[in-house]
Amino acid sequence: MVVVWRGVESIRHLQAFGAPFMFVMAAALLIWVRIKAGSFGSMLSTPSQFHSTGAFLAVFFPSLTAMVGYWATLALNIPDFTRYSKSQTSQAWGQAFGLPVAMTLYTFVGISVTSASAVLFGKPIWNPIVLIGAFHQPVVAFVALIAILIATLNVNIGANVVSPSNDFSNLYPRLISFRTGGIITGFLGLAMCPWKLLATPDAYIFGWLIGYSGLLGPVAGIMVCDYFLIRKTELDVNSLYHREGAYHYTKGINPRAVVALALGVALALIGLAVKPLHFFYDYAWFVGFFTAGAVYLLLMKLSKPASSSFAAEAAEQRKPLNRSLPAS
Asked: By C-alpha distance, which of 276, 260, 174, 186 is closest to 223?
């Protein structure tokens, strides 16, 4: 909350320092545990426990949906960060390297260190705090806990605080600032009792992650469809900030998007109530994404195109202004 209260610039500085520091500390942890254990253990060489393709797919796709759901938040609110990029190329390279490459490396570190802990202590220890305490080395524990603290700040502020802080602020900008939105987010985070969601793997993965992926998938489907298929990647910036613009729809709400969202969420989560359709829930994000996107595209094509008179009028008003401005 202190970092959020200091504003976006403090978050940017934290991310700039924390990201490389986390990478160095993860590599150091991997090397240190490997030296201690003498090997990474048997986990990396153990054959698959699945004896058929069907058994593998039955676990793989729900797990894949859960992981997509895990990243679905950043998939929607990544513009909160990329809008500060100097160019389209820089944000594309930043995401290409910063997300898939970095997360693959961190995943390997987690699996390898857990495997090595099985050699050292006779059982796999996945919790890094418990693992650090098992060595009884205060200096190592101190440095490692600092790294965990910075990692926790980086991940939670970046993925879970910036976007809702902006959202709360946009609801009532005169009353709610970004900092106030961050404080509201913090209290709501506590009120959700996340420790209960993390109590068991079933509750966290198959309950929480897949469940809310069914809510976020339809939102992403509508956004992607609107930007790429309806708008052809072109937006009228002036209309975004005026009620008379093309995006005002019906009193500020696009009913076609609401219908598409409702149908996407309903189909994605119907498996919770109708057991024969439980496979829809296993693919909740994908079902919601494609259903909502298809319905939205159909409804927008069937409806009359949004009026562009405001955009044309705004363009005409800008012409004499542009001619009168001196070159800079």
From this structure: 260
